[in-house]
Amino acid sequence: MAELNTGGGGGKGGKVRSKKSNPGVDLTAMVDLAFLLITFFILTTTLSKPQSMDLSLPDNDKPDPNSTPPEAPAWRTLTVVLGKNDKLVYYIGLTDAPYVDAEINGKPKLENYGGKGIRKAILSHNKYVLEHVDDPNKEGLTVLIKASKSANYKNVVDILDEMAIIKPRSYSIVDVTPGDIKMLEDKKIK
Amino acid sequence: MANIKTSKKSTRIDMTAMCDVAFLLLSFFIMTATAKVPEPKPVDTPASTVKAKLPERNLLTITIGDSAVYLGMSDRETRIAALEAMSLKYDIAFTPQEINEFSLLDSFGVPLEQLKSLLALPNAQRNRPGTQSGIPYAGDISENELSDWVFYASEAVILEQQGRGVEKLKEIEVAIKGGSKEKYPVVKRVFDILQKQNVNNFYLVTSLRSEDF
């Protein structure tokens, strides 16, 4: 609109000159402001939307007396014990008798959280298990998560997040046993 | 001279369309934006990569911060019904004004006997740090105020749907918003209380992060 009149103007004396004055409003500042506000609202709305993760716990009240808990063989069970100072211990097999054979060393190991720590360990064992089971669609790795008293909520969410990334066959949160506590003591993260 | 003619051309752009679009977007974002509700205890939630969205209705949010527990109910009807049931159970009567005031409260964290004095406070003072001490959750696993609130809130949700004649009843959704540094036994206790009330699926409220941490 604004430029429509700028080039115009005949040469018909002073009266025409007054017509040359620009009728359009300068919208630059208004657009600036509008975009500033848009940016503000885009940023605030996306940040304030809370994310969440699902957590399903077993039904405690109605244990089915006929069904035995699904027993996974020791070499397919990996237990993660969460200790203090954002450290954890993991082992393969039973608490008292970690599974050890030619290919798997299931002895308790101290580990950190995150991609370089526990995720790498679980991923490699998950891969190993999937390569060695009869039917990878029906059987796989079971991860038991045991949070000790000294672990914090962030540790639990972190390890659940690892589960969401690794997607083992099954995982569950279970209570710590005295054997696990002793393990944490040995690694000085009780 | 041709050169002079081109220099006469205006360098200004027509901003009208741009302005229109900008304001259209602006009004869209203003309308969709949800106002941030003040909370009695702001907590720093742990990060996760999972991007599930929280439901907006029939939601009970349990905030755990500094070992204290705070409750938030998403619907006004649920708040009113739950408070009425609680007042019967604990034999503390509330006036209609107080019930109405409570139905406007997004989240709270005081023992029931202190709820009256909390509702008497002006809005701006309620969420001052230290005003709300948290809902008691010690004692028997199914006989404490937190478990009663959970029980009556879920009952209220069911009753409200039955009242509307909904065919497929939806149970209440529970979200847990815990602080990163919360000790696990506190969180575990809340899990146990929820499990005792047959709430076995819930959401953990987290903030977002990428997978390479």
UniProtKB/TrEMBL annotation, chain A:
Domain of life: Bacteria
Broad class of the protein's primary localization: membrane
Transmembrane feature ranges: 27-47
One GO cellular component, as annotated: plasma membrane
Membrane topology, as annotated: Single-pass membrane protein; Single-pass type II membrane protein
Keyword line: Cell membrane, Membrane, Protein transport, Transmembrane, Transmembrane helix, Transport
Localisation per UniProt entry: Cell membrane
Compositionally biased region (Gly residues): 1-13
GO biological process, alphabetically ordered: protein transport
InterPro entries for this protein: ExbD
Annotated spans, Disordered: 1-21, 51-73
Any one Gene Ontology molecular-function term assigned to this protein's record: transmembrane transporter activity
Matching PANTHER family: BIOPOLYMER TRANSPORT PROTEIN EXBD-RELATED (PTHR30558:SF3), EXBD MEMBRANE COMPONENT OF PMF-DRIVEN MACROMOLECULE IMPORT SYSTEM (PTHR30558)
Family: Belongs to the ExbD/TolR family.
Name listed for the protein in its UniProt record: Biopolymer transport protein ExbD
Protein species of origin: Flavobacterium terrigena
The organism's taxonomic lineage, starting at the top: Bacteria, Pseudomonadati, Bacteroidota, Flavobacteriia, Flavobacteriales
TrEMBL record, chain B:
Primary localisation category: membrane
Molecular function (Gene Ontology), one example: transmembrane transporter activity
Topological category with respect to the lipid bilayer: Single-pass membrane protein; Single-pass type II membrane protein
Domain of life: Bacteria
Pfam families found in the cross-reference section: ExbD (PF02472)
InterPro entries: ExbD (IPR003400)
Signal peptide residue numbers: none
Any GO BP: protein transport
Keywords: Cell membrane, Membrane, Protein transport, Transmembrane, Transmembrane helix, Transport
GO CC annotation: plasma membrane
Compartments, record wording: Cell membrane
Coiled-coil ranges (or none): none
Family: Belongs to the ExbD/TolR family.
Record-given protein name: Biopolymer transport protein ExbD/TolR
